């Protein structure tokens, strides 16, 4: 099975739309339509913006759930203390194959995301805005939105805005990995814990939040705290975006008020009436059994009380006809392959944990189960980033939630159900081509001496043959590799590389049957 999610799945709404307003009118809200739907937005000073975030209990919607008001005040305080202008970063990187909510926002309502980011930038006195994206579709949409607003990366008195492309990997969306990518390094966690509010992009205090958080801020700034809090739970007001996939008839992104029963949302997507389990929070999240999923409401507090997690807003039910442990093994193998490879728990622990789960499924008995539990405990809390912790949480939750299946595999001959691949993972060999920059890097064979530095700097474009010389004479440069291609040209000792213009059109975002229904 394993059908990867489309970039922009069907979008549905429960109740009145906030973030998805206007989706029933057009596929993408360009600036004029955005202003018609949402109206103009007035600037808000720093303390008033922080108080607004406090009044609506705005927590980060990227998984960690950190209070936005506290983050805003921390960045402002660090900027004042150090006498340096801060940077605002929109993290729209979604490297998890079960998440599409930020992609939907950036592709269909990019100006709502930019509204929130620009509100924060003006309140902080920032002069640099960076948007980190993962896919061709999001890159094309956000570049078009910045162009509609006249925002560029050129020096001048106004705010500078740029787009940074990160790989579609699990670890690349982590905050420190995004900051490292913005600074020109690899999109991997640096292995040290440092608050972005103190030292982020270029060493400056940095406000980094995900796309939905900034969009929620823009909605609240227009509605005001009282109207915003009329929707949803009193302690967690407003709406949330959820990505529903797994054993559902229609994978979708749905905007839903907090407090709505989870079972209603699952029914909306066509999930089984009695799912074997529901994975909440994505592949770094936790499982709910069918009873807990029936009782749960869509909120951080409700899901957490029942052992689940809202996390990045991914909800994945599995039906009674598939082997839950086999499905989990597929994800565990993928998580092990997604490691940064920078520490023992990631490089060694996660593959060992995935292998341990495979041993359990292959009849290893109680000894294999105990070994799996031991390696899962050893991984937790010892990594250089949060990837080992999240992966260990997923595995521990799997073992705790499917005890009957576990007993069947450990004590008997297995559960007798097949593994059908219902949890989405990237297709084998998947790789984004990248939005073209309109440029090519060319090799001058009369000068090339086979030093190989170009292939070290930008291996995605230039690979060396058996003779040590580049395999291609010219290569089209996508936008996200433009900086490294220019660096390869500058560092070629033989001056054998050059970049020339090659006309190329940006891909158009045109999607049919995106489905914007209201339930």
Automatic annotation (TrEMBL):
Annotated GO biological process: cellular respiration
EC number(s) reported in the record: 1.6.5.11
UniProt cofactor(s): [4Fe-4S] cluster; FMN
Highest taxon listed in the record's lineage: Bacteria
Top EC group: oxidoreductase
Matches recorded under Pfam families: Complex1_51K (PF01512), Fer4_15 (PF13459), NADH_4Fe-4S (PF10589)
PANTHER family: NADH DEHYDROGENASE [UBIQUINONE] FLAVOPROTEIN 1, MITOCHONDRIAL, NADH-UBIQUINONE OXIDOREDUCTASE FLAVOPROTEIN 1 NDUFV1
UniProt-recorded name of the protein: NADH-quinone oxidoreductase subunit F
């Amino acid at each position: 099975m394993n059908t990867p999610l489309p970039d922009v799945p069907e979008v549905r709404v429960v109740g009145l739309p906030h973030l998805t307003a206007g989706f029933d009118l057009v596929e993408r809200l360009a600036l004029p339509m955005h202003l018609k739907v949402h109206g103009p937005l007035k600037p808000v000073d720093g303390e008033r913006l922080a108080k607004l975030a406090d009044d609506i209990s705005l927590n980060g919607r990227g998984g960690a759930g950190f209070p936005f008001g506290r983050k805003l005040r921390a960045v402002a305080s660090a900027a004042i203390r150090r006498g340096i202008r801060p940077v605002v970063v929109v993290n729209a990187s979604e490297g998890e194959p079960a998440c599409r909510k930020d992609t939907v926002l950036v592709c269909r309502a990019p100006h709502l995301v930019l509204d929130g980011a620009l509100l924060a930038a003006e309140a902080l006195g920032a002069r640099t805005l960076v948007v980190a994206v993962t896919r061709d579709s999001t890159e094309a949409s956000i570049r078009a939105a910045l162009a509609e607003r006249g925002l560029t990366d050129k020096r001048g008195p106004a705010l500078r805005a740029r787009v940074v492309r990160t790989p579609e990997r699990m670890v690349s969306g982590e905050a420190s990995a995004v900051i490292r990518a913005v600074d020109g390094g690899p999109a991997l966690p640096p292995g040290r814990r440092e608050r972005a509010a103190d030292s982020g992009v270029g060493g400056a205090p940095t406000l980094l939040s995900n796309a939905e958080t900034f969009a929620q801020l823009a909605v609240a700034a227009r509605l005001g705290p009282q109207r915003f809090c009329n929707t949803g739970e009193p302690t967690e007001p407003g709406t949330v975006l959820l990505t529903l996939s797994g054993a559902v008839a229609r994978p979708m992104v749905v905007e839903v008020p907090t407090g709505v029963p989870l079972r209603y949302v699952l029914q909306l997507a066509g999930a089984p009436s009695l799912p074997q389990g529901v994975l909440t929070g994505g592949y770094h999240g936790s499982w709910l059994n069918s009873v807990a999923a029936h009782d749960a409401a869509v909120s951080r507090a409700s899901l957490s009380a029942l052992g689940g997690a809202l996390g990045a807003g991914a909800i994945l039910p599995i039906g009674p006809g598939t082997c839950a442990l086999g499905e989990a093994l597929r994800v565990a193998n993928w998580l092990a392959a997604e490691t940064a490879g920078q520490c023992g728990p990631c490089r060694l622990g996660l593959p060992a944990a995935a292998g341990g789960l495979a041993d359990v499924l292959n009849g290893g008995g109680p000894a294999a189960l105990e070994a799996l539990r031991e390696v899962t405990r050893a991984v937790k809390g010892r990594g250089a980033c949060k990837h080992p912790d999240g992966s260990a949480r997923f595995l521990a939750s799997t073992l705790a939630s499917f005890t009957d299946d576990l007993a069947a595999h450990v004590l008997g001959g297995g559960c007798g159900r097949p593994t059908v691949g219902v949890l989405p993972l990237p297709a084998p060999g998947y790789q984004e081509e990248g939005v073209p920059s309109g440029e090519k890097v060319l090799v001058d064979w009369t000068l090339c001496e086979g030093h190989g530095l170009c292939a070290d700097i930008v291996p995605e474009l230039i690979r060396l043959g058996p003779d040590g010389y580049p395999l291609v004479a010219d290569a089209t440069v996508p936008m996200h590799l433009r900086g490294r291609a220019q660096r390869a040209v500058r560092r070629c000792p033989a001056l054998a590389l050059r970049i020339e213009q090659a006309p190329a059109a940006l891909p158009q975002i045109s999607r049919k049957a995106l489905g914007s229904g209201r339930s």
